Amino acid sequence: MRLILAISILTAACFAQAPSEQIPADDAVRIHEFYRLASQIQDQIWPHWSQTPTPVLLVTPNTEYLTHHPAPPADFKKLRDEFYSRPRQFSPNLLATMPVFGPPSTIVVGEPKNTGSKTSTPWLITLMHEHFHQLQSAQPGYYMAVEALGLSRGDKTGMWMLNYPFPYTKPEVTQGFAQLRDLLLTALNENDEAKFSRLARQYVTVRKKFFEQLTPDDRKYLGFQLWQEGIARYTEIRVAEAAAKYQPTTEYAALADFETLNRYAPKPREKALDELKYVDLGRSGRLAVYPFGAAEGFLLDRMNPVWRESYFKHMLSTDSFFEK
């Protein structure tokens, strides 16, 4: 689950009993590798991404370790190597980005074995997905723009981002989404540029009709999810591909679950496109926006290779990129 706003219900009901004094060695290696990887590739994907604060809170069974936060809360104890610790308060399988200590947003993540990543290299790339959420939320006016959507309906926890009553199972919405999904995949699979251009124009036309059938609030919600989570998934994939030639540290390569970035690089795109082939809006619900939004990012790469330069000028919706 990847949220930007703090969600109080994710906090554990009680603290762990025996916090560790030092961060486990393998966890320290992974976190250092994440910052090293980010420093080498992030600005290749999004200009000035490296200027975004990147605090991380690692949640282990007994202890939470905070690093790279500009003002660690008072309940954290200073350790060595820029780490701070406190007894565990969050679930050890959590994966979220939220201003849990106030701005800037913090990546709150469990160890690989306790998250969907399972092993170290997918975990590194997933953290880059969360780091992109930090870039999104760091934009001037981001939180005001989210509030201005008017979709929270009084909810102050951020859970509306997950629970908004979008008509996922409404037959005309489900069918329209399936048609759009098939057109998107067909266009992406077309290598002939002339044919691709025709398919892209057709996609833009059908996409507009699909969004027009939605209510104004539903349209804003889907656009927001595609902008935020879909493009975050797209970014995760682009990061993996950009990291194909990344040379890890000796310490990272010595981890028991080590996998080279070169071997892992093609997997996220293949997984997203394969997932999209079979995604059903009625069954998948909000999760459908991840592969669908990523695929729209791939389409935009071919339609308008410089589209990312304007991404943050069009807050919370990618619709403008499909208007011309």
Ordered list of secondary-structure elements with their pairings:
Layout: H1 25-45, E1 56-59, E2 63-67, E3 77-78, E4 83-87, E5 95-98, E6 106-110, H2 120-137, H3 142-148, H4 160-163, H5 171-188, H6 193-212, H7 216-242, H8 250-253, H9 261-264, H10 267-278, H11 281-284, H12 289-303
Parallel strand pairs: 1-6
Antiparallel strand pairs: 1-2, 2-4, 3-4, 5-6
Helix pairs in contact: 1-2, 1-7, 2-7, 5-6, 5-12, 7-12, 10-12
Structure in words:
- The protein has 324 residues and is an alpha+beta fold.
- It folds into 2 domains: 8-139, no CATH class; 143-322, no CATH class.
- It has 12 helices and 6 strands.
- A 6-stranded mixed sheet has the order 3-4-2-1-6-5, covered by helices on one side.
- Helix 1 (25-45) packs across helix 2 and helix 1 packs across helix 7.
- The longest helix is centred in the C-terminal third of the chain and has 27 residues, at 216-242.
Task: Please provide a brief summary of the model.
The protein is α+β, with helices and mostly antiparallel strands. It is 48% helix and 8% strand.
Give a short account of the largest sheet: 6 strands, mixed
Helix content: 40-55%
**Dominant shape:** globular
Q: Summarize model confidence as the mean pLDDT.
A: 93
Low-confidence stretches: 1-18
Rg computed from alpha carbons, rounded to a whole number of angstroms: 20 Å
**What count of helical segments does DSSP give?**
12
Assembly state: single chain
The end-to-end span amounts to 34 Å
Beta-strand percent range:
5-15%
Q: How many distinct domains? A: 2
The class by helix and strand makeup works out as alpha+beta
The tally of strands reads 6
Name the helix and strand elements from N-terminus to C-terminus, one letter apiece: HEEEEEEHHHHHHHHHHH
